[in-house]
Amino acid sequence: MRRWLVGVGLALVLLVVLALGHAFATYPTEYVVRVLTLADADIGDVEVFPARTVSAPSDPRPLPVDPEEVGAVFASLGKGDLTEFLEETDSRAFLVLRDGALVHEQYVLGADGQTTLTSFSVAKSFGSLLVAHLVQEGVLDFDDPITDHLPELTARPGFEDITIRHLLDMSSGIAYAEFPWVTGDDAKTYYYPDLRSLALEHTEVDGPPGRVMHYNNYHPLLLGLILERASGGSVSALLEEAIWQPMGAEADGSWSLDEEGFEKMESGINGRARDFARFGLHVLDVAEGRIVLPESYVEAITTPQPRGDAGYYADWMLETSVGYSLMFWQASGDGFTDIVAFGNHGQLIYVAPRTETVVVRLGAGYGIGFEEWMPLLRDFVTALG
Q1: Closest to 80 measured CA to CA, from 92, 89, 71
Q2: How far apart are the C-alpha atoms of 355 and 379, rounded to whole Å?
Q3: Could you state, in order of their start, the residue ranges of all structural domains in the chain?
Q4: Of 303, 219, 307, whose CA–CA distance to 266 is shortest?
Q5: Which listed residue, 89, 281, 342, 362, has the most CB atoms within 10 A of its CB?
Q6: Nearest to residue 216, comparing CAs of 119, 124, 112, 103?
Q7: CA–CA separation, 243 and 117 (whole Å)
Q8: CA-CA distance, 177 to 158, in Å (whole number)?
Q9: What's the rounded Cα separation, in Å, for the pair 11 and 13?
């Protein structure tokens, strides 16, 4: 028995050695080291990656303080005391704005109003608005084939059928496998040192566009390349010009970069909680027409979009009235659709045009199921009235 266990142990060690050898032979050394040493994404990653500063304006948008008692409203949802819930769910910041005023601002577990927090996939929603900005200026069109802007993809099968809109809707048909960890696309699109080459040279199409929503980090990377080329500068510079300064940020933000100086389009915008709240107000201004963007874009993010094919959305989305459109999530109810920017570990900017409410939750972990957060905040906003 002991000899058998020793044999199994040696076999496992050999498999690990062979797997590591294959990984180092196949992928950039820096990538493999990052995956093995850093593992899953973490809110501390704001210190891991290089970053490009996104400067705040000299005149930040005021956030008048008008306190309301929201704890009792939250408790009415059956989740208990708000502070205890935030701590138990590994939260860091929880802000509520109504009619442009800050009615609740709370930090837990060592965070405060000056803490820089990373947004993970909330960055995708920022990127979506940047695309809409260039469409409004006539530089891009949502129905442009992506090969018009990325001619390197022209010779590769299937890419000529993909439009900018398909990328925004996560429905391109580009192959994407989350796992296994070192060889999976989640790790590659997060840790790869040259994300441009990854998106342009290591992607394949395995289905027709427009049929199924498949959450896929190659989409924002390809959009970032299009934004970079269309604007003639960095995506961070475009963010500063089109959103960060117009929304009236109070502090400089940053966008994390790969080793080649390309923005981590799938995840990397960093800032203070109040400035993520200002982004929520910016989205609200778009939804209400106070900021002019293409009418079709505003309609797509503010109303549930019909999907012709069965299976377009995952079952849990259909069961909880959650949708996805142009890199914004949607939480629908009786006669309304709320707009949500959602990131890994439960980063949430929840925008409810029906009551002019914005809720920001930032944290180090989900704490509750990914699929629970949007219905919870939808019920919370509804209970606020």
Answers
A1: 71
A2: 13
A3: 54-384
A4: 219
A5: 362
A6: 124
A7: 18
A8: 18
A9: 5
User: For residues 249-271, b (16+ Cβ closer than 10 Å) or e, as one string?
Assistant: bbebbbbbbbeeebbbbbbbbbb
Residue type, 2: R
Q: Please name the residue that has the structure tokens 């019920």.
A: 379
State how far the Cα of 122 lies from the Cα of 299, in Å rounded to an integer.
Answer: 20
Q: 102: which strand partners? A: 65, 97
Note down pLDDT in tens along the chain; length 385 residues. 565 554 455 445 445 555 556 667 789 999 999 998 998 999 999 999 999 999 999 999 999 999 999 999 999 999 999 999 999 999 999 999 999 999 999 999 999 999 999 999 999 999 999 999 999 999 999 999 999 999 999 999 999 999 999 999 999 999 999 988 789 999 999 999 999 999 999 999 999 999 999 999 999 999 999 999 999 999 999 999 999 999 999 999 999 999 999 999 999 999 999 999 999 999 999 999 999 999 999 999 999 877 766 688 888 898 899 999 999 999 999 999 999 999 999 999 999 999 999 999 999 999 999 899 999 999 999 999 9
Helix (H, G, I), strand (E, B) or coil at 254: strand
Among residues 171, 165, 177, the alpha carbon closest in space to that of 211 is found at 171
Q: Is 238 helix (H, G, I), strand (E, B) or coil?
A: helix
Q: Three-state SS for 362?
A: strand
- Residue 257's SS3 state is strand
Residue 47 CA, chain-centre distance (Å), reads 19
